[in-house]
Amino acid sequence: MTGQNLEIRGLRAGYGSRVVIEEMSLAVKSGDWFVLMGPNGCGKSTLLDCVVGRLIPAAGEICIAGFSLFDDPANAKRQLGYACAPESLPDLLTARQCLEVHAGAKGLTSVGAELLALADELRFLPYLESFVDTLSLGTRQKLSVLLCLIGDPKLIVLDEAFNGLDPASALVVKRHLQSRLEQSGAAVLLATHSLDIVEHYADRAGLLLDGRLKQVWQKSEIQELRSNGKGFDAALAESMPG
Amino acid sequence: MALVLEFAVATEGIQLNNLVRQWLCGAPRLMSAYLVVMNRGRDTAWRDPVLVLGLIVVWAVIVAFSFWTERETSIATLAWVHGHRLFLAGLVAFGTGIVVSRRRALKRSEAVRSWLAALPVRPTIARWEALSIETAPAVGAVCVWTAAFGVVGAVAVVAADTSIIELVTAWVTVNAGIVAGAVLSYLARGPKAMDLPPGSRYVPHRHVVGAASPVPSLWALGRWPVRQMFASARPKAVARAVMPILLLMPLGSSADTAMLVIAMFAVLGAVFLLVVATISVSKVSCRWLQPLPMRVRVLARALLIRPLGVILGGSSVAAWLFWVMGVAVSQSVMRGAVLMMISACVAVGGSLGVIHRTTKGRR
Description:
The complex is a heterodimer of chains A (242) and B (363). With 242 residues, chain A is an alpha/beta fold. Chain A contains 9 helices and 10 strands. Chain A has helices at residues 44-51, 73-78, 95-105, 113-121, 137-149, 167-184, 195-200, 219-226, 232-239, and strands spanning 4-15, 18-29, 33-37, 59-64, 67-68, 80-83, 155-159, 187-191, 204-209, 212-217. In chain A, strands 6-7-8-3-9-10 form a 6-stranded mixed sheet, sandwiched between helices. The mean pLDDT of chain A is 90. By secondary structure, chain B is mostly helical. Helix content of chain B is 77%, strand content 0%. Chain B has 14 helices and no strands. In chain B, helix 4 crosses helix 5 (71-83). The longest helix of chain B is centred in the last third of the chain and has 34 residues, at 255-288.
C-alpha cells in the first residue's frame, strides 16, 4: 500500500501508432479533489480510460488505493467508481436494473441508503422503473453519477460529469462529493472545462497539454488566483505556461 | 492573420483541385454524402482512379470470359430477355417504384432531423438534391443493368452475330421500366413518414409501483438480450416479413396451415433475433462493465443463462409445431434439438468471442 488513492507512474498510452499520453505521472491522495483541465483532444478522456481499465497503456503503472490495476484488477476496480458517458448506459435496462447490476458486480449486499438518499435529493427516484432510452440527457447523467458512487469507492473518476445537469442537481452532486472526500477519505479525479469547479471545489488542478501534465496548481495557488482581483479565469489563464 | 491566409489558400487549392466539391458546394446533403464516401476510402488505394479503372476492366474481362465459355446459354438468356422484355420492364418498374417510394419516405424523415436541416439551400437545388438522393437506387439499377447487359451483349454479338437492334430494344425497354417505376412512385401518393427508431417501445415491461430499494444482482443482464430481441421485432417489419410467406402458400391451404406456418415463422424469427441480440449485447455490456471488478465468466453466465432458456423454450415450441404439422414425434424432437444446438452454439460462441475480443489485451 502506498497511501495514495491513485498513483500513476510513467504512463504512456495512445491508439495504434498515435501516442496521446506521454510519460505521465500523477498521485492523488485521500481527500483530494483533482481537476484535470486541458483543450479538446489533449488526452483527458484517454487518461481516464487508462485509469478505469478501458484502455491498456503501452507502458506505465496505475495503482488504485494501493492495488495495481494490471496485477490485481479485481481489488483495484473494487476501489474505483467511474461515471461513464450517458450514451454508454444500456438503453434497454431500467435505471433500477443498472443500479442492481453495478452493485451486484461489486459484490455488495445492498445499494446503500446514502445513495438512495442522494437519488431522492436529485429527484431521480421517479425514474427508477424507466428504461434508460426514455431518460433525458440530464437524468442519464444523474444515473451515471449514482452508478459511480455505488460501493463507497476510494477513487471517483468523472469525465465531464456535470454536463447536462441542471444547476441545482450539479450543486447537490458537488456537495455530496465534497462530503465523501471529508468523511470517507475518497479522492476525486474529474476531467472538466468548468472553471467554477476549479475555483470552488478543487484541491489541486492540472493542465494536460500534448499528452503531458504541464502544470499543477496546489490549493494555496488556487486560493491566491481567486483573491487577486482580476477574476479567476483571467488569473488562471495568466498563470498558464506559454 | 498569416494562418488564416494559409488556411484560405489551402482551402482554395483543395476546391480548385476538386471539381466535384466545387460542383456540390451549394448542395450540402450531396456534398456530405460524397465526403462520407470519400472518407470511407481514406488511407487506402481505392482513391486512385487508375487502380479503380483497372479493376473494372479486369472485372469486365473476367465476366466476358465467363460468359464466353457459356455463350450458348448467354445467347439463349438474351433471347429470353428480349422475348419477355415487357414483362421484365413491368416487374422492374414495380420494384423500383416501391424502393424509391420507401427511400423517399426514409430520406425525407432523416432530412428534417439532419444536422444540415437548418442550412440555407436554394429551393431549386434542394429539389434536385432530394431527387438525386431518393432516386439513387434507380440510377444504380440502370448502371448495373447497362454494365451487365453490355458485357453479355458484346459476347453474344461476337459469338453468334446476334442482332444489335434486338439487344438495344431489350436494354431500352428494361431501363424504361426502371425510369417509369421511379417516375410513377412520385406520381403516387407519398408514403407515410418513417417511424423513429423504436428503442424500448415494443419491449414488454412490468411497471412496479412502490417497489423496494434495488437489490444487487446481475440477473438483469440476462433480460437485456431478450429485450433487444423484442426491440428488433417491430410489428410493421414483422407484418411485412409474414406477407411473402402467406403469398407463397399454395392456393387452397387451410387457415390452420396458415396459422401453423406463421407460428413457425415467429418462433424461428424470434430465435434468430435472440441469437443476434445476445452477441451484440455481449459486446456492449462488456464495454459498459469493464471498469467494474467482474470476472469474464461471471459476466458471460449472467448474460447467457436467460437467452439460452428462451432458446430452449423456442426450440421446444418449434418441435411441437413440427409435430402438429404432421411430422413424426422422433423427427420433430430431432429438428427441435438441432435448432436448439445450432442456436445455442452460435449464441454462446459469438458471445464469448466478442467478450474475448473486447477484453483482449488486458494485462
